[in-house]
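From the pipeline queue, job 12 of 40. The input is one protein chain; the requested action is below.

Action: predict structure.
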Amino acid sequence: MELTRRDAIAALGAAGIAGGGALALSRSSSDDSSNRSIADGHLETMVAAAEVLYPSTVDGVTEFVEAYVSGRAAVDSAWAGEVADAAAYLEEYADAWYDDSFAALSPDERDAALRRMGADAASSNPDGGSVERVRYYVVNELLFALYASPTGGELVGLENPQGYPGGTDSYQRGPSGSAE
């Protein structure tokens, strides 16, 4: 399955970001990296985390995450700051345990780092401790973006997520696509 910038725009819409979708689309189309409202290093960390969190059957992760995170950060600087702090903690953790940046680790090492820190089991709390904030701003945010997108929704049987047009046929059949 291929994630696209349209999927990122749909996920931004699901997050209540109306103008962010168009901004993300225009920014990902330009080569001017100075337009980003989130640091490239933090964006790289988010992409690296998504590569571990998303199913291996999904392609286009880099472009999708960059469009989603940049679009959301462009309209919500407070959110961008929180994501930057959580990503920075994740980088510090990886450096302390693996002597390398999180993004430079192999996918297996990234997965182990997230599990070792407890991000897979921590409560999701935007005002909590560092691991709870990694769970909220990195893990849950990336999973929300994936499954709020039309392509990601198909992975879990939500071929027609709320707000995504699909016609009356989509409401009259089960998740497998066959009429009931």
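Job complete. Residues 83 and 137 are 5 Å apart (CA to CA).
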